[in-house]
Amino acid sequence: MGFQDLSSVACIHGRFQPFHLGHVDYLSAALSQWESIVVGIAAPTPVPVSFPGVEHRNKPSANPLTYLERTLLIRACCRELGIADARIEFSPFPIDEPSLLKHYVGKSMICATTRLYAWNEEKIRRLENEGYAVVVLEKCIKQPFDGSTIRRHLMDRDPDWKDMVLPSVAELLVQWAIDDRIRDFAQVETLSGSDNYTNGGFSQK
């Protein structure tokens, strides 16, 4: 029951920059199969090397939210959906450095993922290479937007991004002025010509 038997708990994971309706679908699909879920926060610290096709993963402007802020967003989302706090725990999930995963999430835990993007296939390969059992949530539906879309709308002051997240998430993003943070990071990237972290923020979907 709960998190006492970790072998019966599943872990979902993502960068969640920010946590949007596609992620809500992912979380809901996992909760329909397991009573308790660990939400793994990918890139809890800056990503050292980007993978082809997802080079944005190590850009500050693509990672405006800190680890703590992402957990707060997801917790607010769960409360809005009526998901009990006791069903959710959080953990860093450094999928970009998979050899470190075992220090956060034991190999007895099931890793639940989707196959909506090419990056998912690479994550599955990495997890299986590290000895994790992977379950693909086939019922998850690919949304017509992703985190990059939302961040772009935020940077451009386009209010359409609010239709891509739950109201509780939108409220916090506005309160924290994440749009300004994204613009500040983007400006530094432009001036420096660098995609690497210098300070602040953290470096997925």
Instruction: Please tell me how large the radius of gyration is.
Output: 16 Å
Can you identify the CATH class? Alpha Beta
DSSP helix fraction: 25-40%
Question: What is the CATH topology classification name?
Answer: Rossmann fold
Number of self-contained structural domains: 1
Can you walk through the features of this model?
- The chain is 35% helix and 12% strand.
- Residues 195-205 have low confidence and may be disordered.
- By secondary structure, the chain is an alpha/beta fold.
- Strands 3-2-1-4-5 form a 5-stranded parallel sheet, with helices on both faces.
- The protein has one domain (8-191): Rossmann fold (3-Layer(aba) Sandwich).
- Helix 2 runs antiparallel to helix 5.
- The longest helix is centred in the middle third of the chain and has 15 residues, at 67-81.
Which tags fit this structure?
single chain; 205 residues; alpha/beta; Rossmann fold; five-stranded parallel β-sheet; 12% strand; globular
Helices, strands, pairings?
Blueprint: E1 10-14, H1 21-31, E2 37-42, H2 67-81, E3 88-93, E4 110-113, H3 118-129, E5 134-136, H4 147-155, H5 167-175, H6 178-192
Parallel strand pairs: 1-2, 1-4, 2-3, 4-5
Helix pairs in contact: 2-5
Task: Briefly characterize the structure.
It is globular, with a radius of gyration of 16 Å. With 205 residues, it is of the alpha/beta class.
